[in-house]
Amino acid sequence: MIFRSPLPFAEAIESRLVRTLLPTDLRTDLLQTIPAELRERAVFSAGVQSVETLQKVSDVVDALVRGEINRADARQTLKEQLGSLGDEVDETGLTDLRSDARLNLILDTNLEMAQGYGSWKQGQDPAILDQWPAQELIRVIDSRVPRDWPSRWAEAGGQFFGDRMIALKNDPIWLRISRFGLPYPPFDFNSGMDVADVDRETAIEAGLIDDNTELLPQDRDFNTDLQASPEVRSASLREALAEALQGIARFDGEGVLRAVSGSQGGAS
Amino acid sequence: MIGLEINLRGTAGQTLRRLRGAIDPARLSPVAGRAVRNVVRDHLFRLNQERPNQLGGKRTNFYTGAGRATQFVMQGDIAVVSINQVGIRQRFFGGTIRPKTAKYLTIPVHPNAHGKRAREFDLEVVFGEGGKPIALATKGTLRREVTQTRSGTIRRRNVGRRGEIYYRLVRQVVQQPDVSVLPRPDETYGAAISAINTEIDRATGRGGQP
Known about the structure:
The complex is a heterodimer.
Chain A (H helix, E strand, L loop, with lengths): L1 E2 L6 H8 L2 E2 L6 H4 L4 H4 L2 E2 L7 H15 L5 H12 L17 H24 L2 H6 L2 E6 L9 H7 L4 E2 L2 E5 L4 H5 L15 E6 L1 H6 L16 H6 L2 H15 L4 E3 L5 E3 L9
Parallel strand pairs in A: 2-3
Antiparallel strand pairs in A: 4-6, 4-7, 5-6, 8-9
Chain B lengths: L1 E6 H4 L1 H7 L5 H26 L11 H7 L1 E6 L2 E6 L4 H6 L1 E3 L7 E4 L14 E5 L5 E6 L4 E6 L5 E6 L5 E6 L2 E3 L9 H21 L5
Antiparallel strand pairs in B: 1-3, 2-3, 4-11, 5-10, 6-7, 7-10, 8-9
Helix pairs in contact in B: 3-4, 3-6
């Protein structure tokens, strides 16, 4: 039966709910030094210090996850927030928050993170993990200059089966190929890559498991966060960030995470 | 956005009744849902490769987005596969689209306009016969320049460029249904049944202890 009403992607929405706004002047290089489990709980974008802008980003990404708006609507809303509708800017410039390239990057990365987590979480259901214990890294968007994912896979210790990049879902290879240190896609900005389930029979043929192997589901521990109030989550995140970034960044009186003098990298 | 329902009571009822007690129903619906989700995703990823936008503009990768937005939800022992992306339902069912608030729909006709809202550009209205708005175009800078040389010769030339039409303005669009945006029902149900059978085989192989 096919019907017109969609149902919420609960797991993807859950990954949005645990996030706290994190205004910061940190650029990408320094943001990368934040532990993945903290980045996974924050809404931020390199150099964006405005809480209002981050709130709007969060709102439109939530609406994208729920399937209520499309990317063009989301981008237009952000341009309205930034007061840049109709402005002529270099649309390819990633450092200009008003550009299409930067706004699309923010929207796509956040949306794909939520969907990636949602699919990963559903894939950790014991029955699903039993039937599809492995996954394959696949290209789903062609790129004019594609990154060399097979090399990245090999350097991270991944095994090839023919030319297929396959590993168990809970293999640390997924963390190692990820720029974000997370086990689910996206594994890099604008990567065009995703994962596809690989069934048990294929995983056995590939020698990844034997017939009796039972995989233990993994978790990202969002449930504990969701039981806390937003205020508690925010305070907890700030405390953890302050500790993790000692000597690199600290919160100012306005609650903006700022790089400590001399520690700022050059990338966007 | 669109949903596909996989009702195990209908698709595998007899087998399930026979095995009731030996199989945990809570394990069957998720594998059926995931199997159908996988088939739908594969189908949409394939469409993304096969169907670039007709204007030749920068791709929005609509179908890959739809694939990534595909998931399943459990409702009792029914698994519902849902594609949470704007536009997929319209493509599947077709139908008439009318503007919600504005007077006109803006239909992209220029590669630069593909995947973008008209308000993202600084455009002007082009009027047709009877002063009816028919399009949105970039602002033209075309002007006639007249100069005189030392010898007294008058030279006339066009400087700047004409505005380019980015969007056509229409009151409504009637879109034909396209059922090929989803896999065929036999593919989705086939995947669900296969996954259920695999789970049953695994469970019975474990002595009925899933």
